[in-house]
Amino acid sequence: MKPLLSLVIDRSLSISFTISGIILVGAAFVLIACALWKVRGRRSWHAFEIDEAEFGLGSQKIKLSPNITDKQIAYKIWVELSTRKIGLPIDLEHDVVSEIYDSWFNFFSVTRELIKEVPVQKFARPDTEKIIRLSIEVLNVGIRPHLTRWQARFRRWYDRQLANSEYAEQHPQEIQRQFPEFPELEADLLAVNARLISYREKMYELIRRN
Description:
Number of helices: 7
Oligomer: single chain
Shape: elongated
Radius of gyration: 29 Å
Mean pLDDT: 78
Largest sheet: 2 strands, antiparallel
């Protein structure tokens, strides 16, 4: 039986090395198995998808292969959304609109800082850029239009009512419902809130992705 490996040095100090075909076949099998494992791993990453329609941003579906940087961004955003009123269900029987607007404003500031902390070399990675772009669009398209339309008008009206002694005995929740366009403001506010909750849930899914 021939040896699997052989190393021969003749009298002229020439060296010959022989490898059995069995070893070559085995090595090829190991390389193919490793390649298939990596491909399967990549496909599992690519299975993660974000539908922008959930956030009111359009109909595009974003497919991601997230790495640790992407997960870190998603984790920080998820924490902010989970610990502020912005990412939790709003109940205007108990919540105060002006305080909700304060929370949204703070979320703008915090998210901008989180995005700026991402090293520029990480931004060059397409999937990281997609997550950052999505976060910016959630701010500019998901939240800003409501604030532009309603915030200044409501705050000015609300501050005047608070200064009016006629409303001294009323709770803030009672006063805010007297805003002339409150039903329309409420509907828009709750629609934005629902989209932000979906955004928070999607960031959580991304964090938990193996």
